[in-house]
User: Fold these one by one.
Assistant:
Number 1:
Amino acid sequence: MRRRVCPAGTIPNHNPAEHVELEPGTEPKALVWTDEQVAHWLATGEKPSPVMVRTPEQTGTFLDHIVDHRLEVMWRPIAFGGPRRGEGCGPRWTDFSKKSRSLQPPNSSRTAGTSSKVSRRPTDPHLTSAAFMQVRSLV
């Protein structure tokens, strides 16, 4: 598809999606996983909703499973700090301070209509590696 829109070695001087109009959508309803829903999902592969939320017990089981995994340091802040998607997946090594044992979430970009705003989320004291280690010792 990309080659038809943008042949190799050329850069278009227009946005091919500029005149595309999409129907407004509705946000899917988030549901909490129940034992029955998990059993149905395992048997059929069908999720009850596109957005499913784990229970605290399910989250604990997941975090126990990823101990010593290379991405454990990403999943723990997501589980306990509630960062936005880009904040959870987008930090760079420069966002982490060994001295203060803290993580400064990266810039977040929000778009509303035709304008966008870039802002930094204030550092949350709960998003520190010291807090993660305390939580880890409890899990």
Number 2:
Amino acid sequence: MSTQKDVCVAVTRRIFLPVVSLIIVGMLTASCSLTFSNSDAITVPDTGEASPYPSTIVVTNVDGTVTNIDVTLFEISSSAASDLDILLVGPTGASVVLMSDVGEVALDVTLTLDDDAETSLPDSATPLTSGTFKPTNASDAGPKCTETEDVFPDPAPAGPYSTMLAAFNGTDPNGTWSLYVIDDCAGDSSSIDGGWSLGIVAETTVDAEPPILTVPDNITVNATSPKGAVVTFAATATDDASTPTVECVPPSGST
């Protein structure tokens, strides 16, 4: 003989505040692009350090950190450009070889060195022409010299040196930028008659304050079905610079 017993239980469900998470759409940043110049000529002897050594640019009042750097050398003339070794040193000590052992003759050439350029500078058998190029260290002493290692005399820092301007990314641009130029092979003199310029893109965070999150108090409701009860609530966030997105788990309107 079988029997069936029906048991009915009245359920009261206490619903507490859901877990609320705040998703920030994006921290607001500001980017500025600035150019600083030193138009004084740089004279390079047939061997040794240029005059001045180094040539400097002082950067001040730039907010944020570096996100991109480019360098322009104006009016380069040389009967053997491959003799030129050029090193850029930033205020924090980061250092990049802009060019070394590249190009043959150069006549009133203006070069912009930029990591984003499509091509590198030509080898020591090809004349230099004006344009935008990647920083290039060919590690090639050229047809007349035997030196294969770039050595910049004091007060330049010792190597190793980077060959990408991205080495300056994340650094403070304010301070003295130094351009060290040497001729590493006797027999030819050179000049950078128009001096040089430094293009800096710096980025700073404008919105450093966190958003303000507004959430409801704890919620208590009685179950209206075996699944529980529908609970609705509102959680909001405000921010001075951006519009945050609020996600709640479980979401409003859940049982």
Number 3:
Amino acid sequence: MTARRCGDLGVVLALFTVTYGCAPDSTRTLQLGYLGNGIPVAWQPNMATIACGTWSNEWALVDPNAGTVIKRFRGHTGWVLSIDWSLDGSHVATGSGDCSVKVWDVQKDAPLRTMYFHTKLVTAVSWNRDGKRLAAGSSDWNVSISDPNTGTETAKIQGAPTMAEALVSSIGELFTPNHLPTNRTVRDIGHSRDLHGVRWSRDGVHLATVGYDGQAKLWDFYPDRVSLMREFTVTRGLLPGQKPVFSIDWSPDAKVVFTGDEQDMLSAFNVSTGKKLWSVRAHNGDVFSVAAHPTGHYVATGGQDSIVRVWDSGSGRVVNGFKIPTKRVMSVAWSSDGNRLAAGGVDGNVYIWSVNGGTVKSIRVRQ
């Protein structure tokens, strides 16, 4: 193992690194600092099961009622960083530090298929409601759109470094080899730094993406092309990647998007105009995850201060919240009925909060 500085995080850190395979014929370096993603959580649509990472190469199905792990799934060679369900609740998609996206039938042990469309960590996955499009965002600055039924890539949104960012990244190559994406031009309209969040709108028409470039981008998909519908700046830093946006979600009617960022802010934007509707300091530290309530009335956030908060989506007023015994809350997800909220941290546990009873249950998922 060797120590090096981590350019992907936008800060200078001395980290240990290990090698792993990004594709069958290649090896790259996994930056352990990126695994601050913690435990991703996703609630099975219209059912009571939670799919979650385990802060390891596994992912698990959890019964929130019994407080137990139902089943563990193995197949990745890197940590599971992102997870999502198909709309019918029969399949799960996972993104990993091994640079792959895997599709799983929850009734079987092995993955149905493995897709290598990225050269770096797959930090976010989102399954379209039509079941035919799976979006994945990566620290290689790209977003892939694939057909999870066939394992074929159907579209790609390529990263696009600006001239200034290309220069900074080139200097950063002294500490982070192979960080600057190849075959990209300033004409491309994708993100100019690592992707950290992708999310389909609930009607399946639009895709939202956010990343370390401080931008939120909204995309339309047509049979013959992908079109950038709207983009706006969420955060600004002195250097590229200094003020990342970590998470984004849509209101159920797709009229508003909510973002969480490194400047401690939760913000709401009008989709039609790109205008910021409101912004509040949501946490004492980074806002790692946002999740809109199924009714659209509320939005939940998880932050660096170990707190989960619930906000009024119209005004940005805090209405509830709870603290969990972990260093950071990296992911939050509502149940389909909106009565419970799951949160994943970095301590190997999933926490379930009951809206009506106000109780918090802890479930150990890391072995």
Number 4:
Amino acid sequence: MKNVVISEMNKTNKAFKTHTLAKQGSPLQATPDNLYKVTVDGVELTPKNASFKKSKGHLLVEKDGELIVDLDYSKSGTAIDLLVSDGWVSVENIDTTAGIASTTGELETADPAVDAGGDEDESRSTALGFGGLGLLGAAGGAAALAHDGGDDHSAAPGAPTAPVLAPASDGGAKGDGLTNDNTPTLTGRGKAGATVTVYDGATSIGTATVQPDGTWSCTPTTLLGEGVHTLTAKQYGSSGDLSSPSPPLTITIDTVAPPPPTAAPTSYVDNVGAVQSPTSTAPTTDDTTPGFNIGSLPSGVAGAVLYVDGVEVEADYNNGVLTPVSQLGPGAHTIGFGYADAAGNASISSPTMSIRVDTPTQPPPQPAPTTAPTSYIDNIGPEQNSKSTAATTDDPTPGINIGTLPDNVTGAVLYVDGARVPATYDPTTGAITPTSPLGGGAHTIGYGYVGPNGTSATSPTMSIRVDTTTPPQPPPTAAPTSYIDNV
């Protein structure tokens, strides 16, 4: 069932009261001279977001195809017609014996003559549309009601719009009317240059001037007490005439925090590193955003807050776990938590648990070999050697002798001219051989180790020149001394 609240205002003395339906769609006996506004789950219904239909002395208010409330005028004893202005419902006596007992119809919409807060031609107070039933603009509705009462409002400004809680003062869920700010800032719209007075019931709590863009903002000069308050606004025109009141804003002031938890968190969720646990009690963790297990929230508690070293920090609560949004710094911390209510009030911290955040430091780099290779395997050409130290070779893939790898080393890499190149290490020969042929010319050759801390830089280097060109055949050293004559 939706939360249905009907606000009722006496048009004569401006007194307010509210009705809460025990059952959605229930009838409410209506008084012809009063105004009514219907709110569903905190949203005011108007002809823009709901349907207003009259049927046999009743006004049926529907939203999304559901009957919300039945305003019953059938016992008023007089023929009436209905007026609706921005969701405020009233009735008007009409000169007819037919009344509305046998008519049904849906409100028709007419464009407002002016924006909220402007003046309205009294001729617009005539109800528009079906059977004299219609929708007037915000100011037009005010003029129609004034006309019904017989007063001349031609010089008075229209009513300002209903006050609204400024976002910074809306401590609960947005739009629920619940706040922990007892001097909440209120905003609204009115006639540029007019002076707006805000009332808590019949008591003035502050004034503001409507800005050129039609907006006003007012912060009460006195504290509002705990509980429900019905706030309205009126504006004075340049001639000093006072408007009728705006539609009301009902808010609840709640500045009392819930009692704090009595026990400290005893475990946390650790999702980082080699040792992880959903209920860790270890005094040290490498998880910089551990989720603290605080359990289910008690009845009446809307949320939880996290205290780190006595300071409230932003945190997310989910399924009994409260997790900081930002990382905890390294070192020791005290961790507590508190309860929050729907108005945004947070309790003080529970008793605390201690935890130390110790993130692993970057391991030192793998040590590089300290000596250069001194020989190589040459398997090409007329001069081959498994431990060649010649400065030049015709083998483009010489095997560089680096020996047996140390115990803590798992592999080797080859560096040619300072750059790592693909190579294969043979543990039998102790040599590392480039996969691709080296280019012709001079090269520096080094090697590195692969171990638990990664790959090392290069060792000191040896120099070697690769020359794969074929040398020219040397000329004979003696002249010919004879010849064969066959003729």
